[in-house]
Amino acid sequence: MDGSNDEDRVSQLEALGEELRNLEASPLYAYREEKGYLPVPGEGNPDAKIIFIGEAPGAQEVKSGRPFVGNAGRLLDGLLASIDLNREDVYITNVVKDRPPDNRDPHVNEIAVYAPILLRQIEIIEPNVIATLGRFAMEFILEQFDLPQQGQKISDLHGRALHTETARGDVTIVPLYHPAAAFYSEDLKRTIEEDFQVLKRFI
Ligand code: URA
After folding, report:
1. Domains along the chain?
2. Percent of the chain with pLDDT over 90
3. Ligand 1 centroid distance, CA of 202 (Å)
4. Taking the CB of the first residue and of the last residue of the chain, which one, N or C, has fewer CB atoms within 10 A?
């Protein structure tokens, strides 16, 4: 995948989007069809240096097929702006790419079924930084990259830059709280804002 140019990346990401649309193996596929929801592959700069990975799309996202366009998305946009970035500069996606019923937490088998798509997205985009939003994305990425911090809590790891060697070079993983956490606590909101500043180093 080394040296992919923009056009390659766009067509490879499109092919993944098509795979997702036809992902009948997903336990969430029947629910998507029944409700007339759209799958949410991800969007942004295929050449991005930073990829943001959330948990799963919610009600607004599955209406538009776009990640983080509801309330949490507005917060994410503000956080990006605070470090002089906008959505077009980065790539934004989720671990699970269909909406779980009633916005419940994703199940292990759901995470497993979408995992190959997320891992391919990372391979295609080749980001230098993987910023995880919330516990599910953090746990998934720490496990996939076999980091020694696996099993540690987000309350200990948030805002830290964790370095790892991959076949294509150094990658930095930055665990962040999910932006939606800011709705529930002013303290967490401030923490998320501070943690975002860590990303400035990598822009
Ligand atoms: N929350 C997420 O984790 N992802 C979205 O796309 C929207 C809300």
Report:
1. 3-202 (3.40.470.10)
2. 95
3. 23
4. C
Question: Is the CB–ligand 1 distance for residue 58 below 6 Å?
Answer: yes
Pick the residue whose CA is nearest to atom 7 on ligand 1.
Answer: 68
**Quick one: tokens of 115?**
């995992």
Q: Which atom of ligand 1 is nearest to the CA of 61?
A: 6
Q: What is the pLDDT of residues 10-57, one digit of tens each?
A: 999 999 999 999 999 999 999 999 999 999 999 999 999 999 999 999
CA dihedral 101, 142, 179, 159 (to 10 degrees): 170
C-alpha 56 to ligand 1 mean position (Å): 5
**In a 3-state reduction of DSSP, which class is residue 88?**
helix
Assign 1 a pLDDT band (cuts: 50, 70, 90). very low
CA–centroid distance, 14 to ligand 1, in Å, is 20
